[in-house]
Amino acid sequence: MRIGLAYNEKPDPANSAAEPPSTNDAFAEWDDPSTITAVEQALGLFGSVIRLEADPLFPQKLDLERPDLVFNMAEGLRGQSREALVPAICEYLNIPYTGSDPLTLGLSLHKARTKEILAYRGVPTAPFACVETADDLERLRLPFPVFVKPVAEGSGKGVFSNNLCATAGQLRERVRFLLDRYTEPVLVETYLPGPEFTVAILGNGPAAYCLPVIGLDFSALPPGVPPVYGYEAKWVWDRPEAPLAIFQCPAPGPAGLYAEIERTALDAYHAVGCRDWCRVDIRVDRFGVPNILELNPLPGIIPDPAMNSCFPKAARAAGFSYDELVQEVVRIAWRRLTGRDVAPDRKITAAVPRRAAAVSA
Q1: Which CATH superfamily is domain 196-349 in?
Q2: Cβ count near 191 (within 10 Å)
Q3: Does residue 348 register a pLDDT over 60?
Q4: What's the CA gap between 26 and 13, in Å, rounded?
Q5: How many CB atoms lie within 10 A of CB 341?
Q6: Over the stretch 207-226, which tens digit does the pLDDT of each residue have?
Q7: Which of 49, 97, 141, 186 could potentially form a cystine with 90 if both were Cys, beta carbons 3.0 to 4.6 Å apart?
Q8: In the CATH scheme, what is the homologous superfamily, with its name and number, of domain 126-190?
Q9: Does 358 have pLDDT greater than 80?
Q10: pLDDT tens sequence across 290-310
Q11: CA-to-CA distance for 325 and 338, rounded, in angstroms?
């Protein structure tokens, strides 16, 4: 098998005159070279791997190479439909790929569109408004406190600790800042004061299942900051030399809440039409009900266990190594596409022992 690896690589900060990481989140969604290399090595189990950087030449490169399958982890270059571009090009060229289709990726990136679908399908999500100009705030009827963030960003982009607003003045200042910085609408939603969780999901249809739920321990954040897992917590306060011990996996808590979190995550997964894998972020409201924050059908998969990358963390708790997680996504996608299991490359696996047992869901 020939597998194409579609990706976007973060620029080397040593060669950039950009702002420091504490203020510049432009490439937060893109992957480090170490992640791209780790995924490439894991995919090697199935045959040859062709790197296909999702740059302006991606359509030509894909058409020239025509791999048997594209492993899609590309975030796209620009625009509110950027995550949908690589799978759309794959479909145009009739080349199969892993993960969700262009419609689901486009809907999931736009948080307001996602919440509209969830609300229609009866999946709990916080009351919200989508603000296109600061003047739209005059018609806002949500009680304070509220939380604001750009409507179509990921990986913590635009999600700062001071986005939690307790007054109309704070709200107007933050909305104006976000509108100016990201040039896209701003999501304003009722703040959910309960604990937060993230759920990694693998599979399709009735076979989709949750990996062990991850809970967030906000006491690990610096003193005095709001309980928000945003850009600072992901990319500034959490450093290799001083990791932020914010995640607990499996999450502690009552079995009933745990079951409700899993059910809500799966309901959202199916409502938006996710395929193969997705990470679902959940926070509990003041009534104890798990609410969907957002869905991430292109989940981050940083290989270093010291880094707070949620999907690999949940996979390790379920018994998957990093390579096995990547390979399982390929297997799930191939079964969806062909109805058959994908065979490892015999030349590569001849000296590699098989796993002793399948991982339990």
Answers
A1: ATP-grasp fold, B domain (3.30.470.20)
A2: 22
A3: no
A4: 12
A5: 9
A6: 999 999 999 999 888 888 99
A7: 97
A8: ATP-grasp fold, A domain (3.30.1490.20)
A9: no
A10: 999 999 999 999 998 877 789
A11: 20
- Evaluate whether 91 touches 63 at the Cβ level (below 8 Å): no
Above 50 in pLDDT, residue 359? no
Tokens of 158: 């635009």
Q: How far is 150 from 132, CA to CA, in rounded Å? A: 10
pLDDT one-digit tens code per residue, 94-108: 999 999 999 999 999
Tokens of 303: 């290989």
pLDDT digits (tens, 9 = 90+) for 14-58: 655 544 444 456 666 788 899 999 999 999 999 999 999 999 999
3-state secondary structure the chain: CEEEEEECECCCHHHCCCCCCCCCCCCCCCECHHHHHHHHHHHHHHCEEEEEECCCCHHHHHHHHCCCEEEECCCCCCCCCHHHHHHHHHHHCCCCECCCCHHHHHHHHCHHHHHHHHHHCCCCECCEEEECCHHHHHHCCCCCCEEEEECCCCCCCCCCHHHEECCHHHHHHHHHHHHHHHCCCEEEEECCCCCEEEEEEECCHHHCEECCCEEECHHHCCCCCCCCCCHHHHHHCCECCECCCCEECCCCCCHHHHHHHHHHHHHHHHHHCCCCEEEEEEEECCCCCEEEEEEECCCCCCCCCCCCCHHHHHHHHHCCCHHHHHHHHHHHHHHHHHCCCCCCCHHHHCCCCCCCCCCCC
CA-CA distance, 225 to 188, in Å (whole number)? 20
* pLDDT: which is higher, 87 or 358: 87
Mean pLDDT to the nearest integer, 60-79: 94
Q: Indicate the residue type of 99.
A: G
- Residue 156: partners with Cβ closer than 8 Å, 6 or more residues away: 25, 28, 229, 230, 231, 233, 234, 235
Are the beta carbons of 292 and 281 closer than 8 angstroms? yes
Domain extents in the chain: 2-100, 126-190, 196-349
